[in-house]
Design goal:
The structure is a homodimer of 259-residue chains.
Chain A lengths: L12 E3 L7 E5 L30 H12 L2 E4 L22 E2 L2 E2 L8 H28 L5 E8 L2 E2 L2 E2 L4 E4 L5 H9 L7 E3 L11 H7 L6 E7 L6 H22 L8
Parallel strand pairs in A: 2-3, 2-6, 6-11, 9-10
Antiparallel strand pairs in A: 1-3, 4-5, 7-8, 9-11
Chain lengths: 259, 259
């Protein structure tokens, strides 16, 4: 790509800003875009399109859910391999040198200045944009429930994963428990805190953006073979939106932010 | 003042950025400055210099502590009456219509647009600057302990306050308990979670900036009659810096961020 100039920053993209629903959908791994400044990160051709550069299907599903829930949507415009916005700056996974079994050559041996540049270019602008959108909604009396949308691979180091729909919480489990409860009849193998949990340090956005305001929140993980085409993304949104709507209704009136 | 143009924002001021000590001192109520855009907020002459516009002595004490602890310092450049950076946007105290018994005429009946302008001009830039400084320190392997410095009035609605040094915590009490323990011989009436506590919604900065990163943190409140002159500020810094240094030593090695 040739659309970048030195010193550019990459704030989050906000869609459906005026949507009046109670949720704000967030997709930190929406994009596999590698801006010119970071070249190909040394990846073999094709790898950037695979799971390691972004979560396949996650943005399509997030858009489908936001439309069906009349929710706002905030998503990252840059690959997680440049900076993973769901990780704090000091986490090894923030600028990972390895993703599953794939080395990321362009992330090896980064200088302090190179790390700082990525924090300033990607991490801080993403979270500043999300923070501004949450503040705006708090101010107009629409404290948003935060729903982050991710996808995961059907296999991990060769082993198949049975879970299809993972529902992950951090310190506030209200919405996650409601989602698991309402997912009972949805036909998906639904599991709480699988294939990851907060103990794996995957809930940074929830900690940074939802917990400080007492906003109900949850991280959703969908197995990516189930959302591999636009049609499958839409079908999954059709399947999950009613589950989420019922779960949102359960936690409404419980919001700490409205106390 | 005539130093402001329409659309200006007011990021936090960072001092001693390269200081290598383990603490980052924060002073949200450092300033009583009312930028031209907001006029005098209808305050009677002299009131803007009183406690209600800023915390008297807090910035001087914060500077004294930062110097003695070799710590960084981040402080707000605008009066809490325009926007109180230690309050979330939807809190009544964010743009208070009343402070103790004093009405703030310029904050009565604010339009949604006027509220949003203050959030964008003061609140978001302050916290973005503080967030960036914390991120930078995390990245270079200096996860900062967060110490916010405030002052309070000797009387409240006419009643005298006996407490001289208040030590307040949010969900993580490690540093507050250590400070109270080390303050035993310092000669001040020291009390935990007085004259305010987290239940009074006074710990927003701790929630927003320290807890998401597992950083040890505390809010300090000093009675303002004890720091009423530059000499008194320096004497209080001399008195409290050793207390804080010992408390910091107690919590070092316990930092969640370093796990």
């Amino acid at each position: 790509m040739t659309d970048q100039r030195a010193g550019d920053t990459f704030p989050a993209i906000v869609e459906r800003r005026e949507a009046p629903g109670p949720a704000l959908v967030v997709c930190e791994h929406a994009s596999n875009r590698l801006p010119a400044e970071w070249g190909t990160l040394g990846l073999a051709p094709g790898l950037a399109e695979a799971h390691i550069a972004g979560d396949p299907g996650a943005l399509g599903l997030a858009r489908g859910l936001a439309a069906r829930l009349d929710a706002g949507l905030v998503h990252a415009p840059v690959s997680r391999l440049v900076y993973d916005c769901n990780r704090p700056p000091h986490a090894p996974g923030a600028m990972a040198v390895k993703s599953e079994m794939h080395a990321i050559p362009g992330n090896a041996g980064l200088s302090p200045a190179a790390r700082q540049r990525r924090v300033e270019a990607v991490y801080l602008p993403f979270h500043a944009t999300l923070h501004a959108e949450i503040a705006r909604r708090l101010l107009i009396g629409l404290p948003p429930v935060i729903i982050t949308v991710h996808s995961f691979t059907p296999t991990w180091f060769g082993a198949p994963r049975a879970v299809e729909f993972g529902v992950i919480h951090d310190a506030d489990p209200r919405l996650a428990l409601a989602v698991v409860g309402e997912a009972a009849g949805c036909g998906l193998n639904t599991q709480l805190n699988q294939p990851y949990s907060a103990a794996d340090d995957v809930t940074h956005t929830l900690k940074l953006q939802a917990l400080p305001y007492g906003l109900a929140n949850v991280m959703l993980e969908i197995r990516n073979d189930l959302i591999a085409t636009p049609e499958a993304e839409a079908a999954m949104a059709d399947r999950l939106a009613p589950v989420l709507a019922r779960a949102l209704a359960r936690v409404s009136g419980q919001s700490h932010a409205a106390d």
